[in-house]
UniProtKB/TrEMBL annotation:
InterPro entries: Aminotrans_3, Aminotrans_3_PPA_site, PyrdxlP-dep_Trfase, PyrdxlP-dep_Trfase_major, PyrdxlP-dep_Trfase_small
E.C. number: 2.6.1.55
Pfam families tied to this protein: Aminotran_3
Enzyme class: transferase
PANTHER family reported in the protein's UniProt record: AMINOTRANSFERASE, AMINOTRANSFERASE CLASS-III
CDD domains: OAT_like
Keywords from the named record: Aminotransferase, Pyridoxal phosphate, Transferase
GO MF term (any one): taurine-2-oxoglutarate transaminase activity
Similarity field: Belongs to the class-III pyridoxal-phosphate-dependent aminotransferase family.
Protein's UniProt name: Taurine--2-oxoglutarate transaminase
Length: 449
């Protein structure tokens, strides 16, 4: 096994004895013991190195161990490792200022959380209290986090086990032309029909019962479906017309991932609430948050907001955010992701798609891409069925194993692989990863036809 060195074996043994892992059948997993990580790579205890095309869980937007961020965390730890949330603390104030400067439009107040799911929880609580309405609309093919409310608004199979106490959550179909629910053949049709479907859903649910519509600006885990031009602006207009709070979840898409600071900027829309986490500090210390519009902030100007966290705006996490945002600005990471996405990664993935019968569609922007793998390009039958496990999932398992043999750690979700390297990945690293992807797709090809 790759954990054969004495220390690797000990790490693995203690993990297997005592660590309970997320989303897993505990006896059926075989976690790799990781010895270290730097930039776009990590390695095991036997010195086997992997190029990380997953950015962890799409959070190391500036790669692992960036020396300036490590130094900032060390400096903050030396000065003030922790402090309670009710005080004004330099790192917290500065992080909030830097984030608010970059969030779209007039979103100007930042409520800090420990990660993405609790950011979504608080955004929806704020929306319900602000409107006095009970319901929330969310999309199938979405992911909003693992806590009760966040997983209930999620539109993937991980919510099924927690579909209790879901009162007030109504799901709808967002646009996705490749697998259109609306029999659309063009982006324009998909956009118009998806908006009409949302309008009808709202009419039948009762507009005055709906507090919020929550959408990922570009759905991430569910498949990186870039919405057609006009869709998000259309949702904005619908929300305005019905007094519904528009929540954009930028936990995955934010902080440079799409080649802009926030994906909302790509579409010229300003939500009322925007959630973030992950890339805010490259995941070096857990941090998330909600950016809040003046109107919603006003609701809680004289009346207390009924929510809080012991570690809201934790100084170590906030110092990491200040340093990460500084690095991204100084090193032009956002512009780099945009340029490399449009000039190198996008064209290279399309070239792979042209050669591999297993690739049904390539979609994305910046450092945020998905390859939809299929049995047949004409019928678009997915390479593995929805939510497949075990033998039914063998083609995707074989694809992932082949990528790893070629030194690439791939992101795999159902019948898709996502290409989501750090936003500061080099062109040479991208080319190395693309060569490994090419080899792994040849394995996927054997399951087509
Ligand atoms: N929202 C989106 C769009 C996400 O992608 C995720 C995590 O992948 C979450 C929320 C949940 O974030 P966390 O795992 O930090 O709770």
């Amino acid at each position: 096994t790759p954990d054969s060195s004495p220390s690797g074996a000990a790490v693995k043994a203690a993990d297997r004895a005592h660590v309970f892992h997320s989303w897993s059948a505990q006896d059926l997993i075989d976690p790799l013991a990781v010895a270290g990580a730097e930039g776009s790579y990590f390695w095991d205890y036997d010195g086997r190195r992997y190029l990380d095309f997953t950015s962890g869980l799409v959070f190391t937007n500036i790669g692992y161990q960036h020396p300036k961020v490590v130094a900032a965390i060390q400096e903050q730890a030396g000065r003030m490792t922790t402090f309670a949330p009710a005080f004004a603390i330099e790192a917290r104030s500065e992080a909030a200022r830097l984030i608010a400067e970059r969030t779209p439009g007039d979103l100007d107040k930042i409520f800090f959380t420990n990660g993405g799911a609790d950011a979504v929880e608080h955004a929806l609580r704020m929306a319900r209290l602000h409107t006095g309405r009970p319901k929330v609309l969310s999309a199938y093919r979405s992911y909003h986090g693992g806590t009760q409310q966040a997983v209930n608004v999620t539109g993937d199979p991980r919510r099924w086990a927690s579909d209790t106490g879901t009162a007030g959550v109504v799901r709808f179909w967002a646009p996705f032309l490749y697998r259109s629910r609306f029999h659309a053949e063009t982006e324009e049709q998909e956009c118009a029909r998806a908006l009409e479907h949302l309008e009808t859903t709202i009419a039948f649910e009762g507009p005055a019962t709906i507090a919020a519509i929550v959408l990922e600006t570009i759905p991430g885990t569910a498949g990186i479906m870039v919405p057609p031009p006009g869709y998000l602006a259309g949702v904005r207009e619908i929300c305005d017309r019905h007094g519904i709070v528009f929540v954009l979840d930028e936990v995955m898409a934010g902080f440079g991932r799409t080649g802009t600071w926030f994906a909302a900027g790509l579409f010229g829309v300003v939500p009322d609430l925007m959630t973030f986490a992950k890339g805010v500090n490259s995941g070096y210390v857990p941090l998330g948050g909600v950016a809040i519009s003046p109107a919603i902030a006003e609701t809680f100007a004289k009346r207390p907001y009924p929510g809080g966290l012991t570690y809201s705006g934790h100084p170590l996490a906030c110092a990491a955010a200040v340093a990460t945002i500084g690095v991204m600005a100084e090193e032009g990471v956002v512009e780099h992701a945009a340029r490399l996405g449009s000039d190198v990664l996008g064209p290279a993935l399309r070239e792979l798609a042209a050669r591999h019968p297993s690739v049904g569609e390539v979609r994305g922007t910046g450092m945020f891409w998905a390859l939809e793998l299929v049995r047949d390009q004409q019928t678009r039958e997915p390479l593995v069925p929805y939510n497949a496990t075990g033998e039914a999932n063998a083609p995707m398992a074989a694809f992932a194993a082949a990528a790893k043999r070629h030194g690439l750690w791939p992101f795999v979700n159902m019948n898709r692989t996502h290409v989501v390297p750090p936003c500061n990945v080099s062109e040479a690293e991208l080319k190395e990863g693309l060569a490994a992807l090419d080899a792994a797709l040849s394995v996927a090809d054997t399951y087509t036809g």
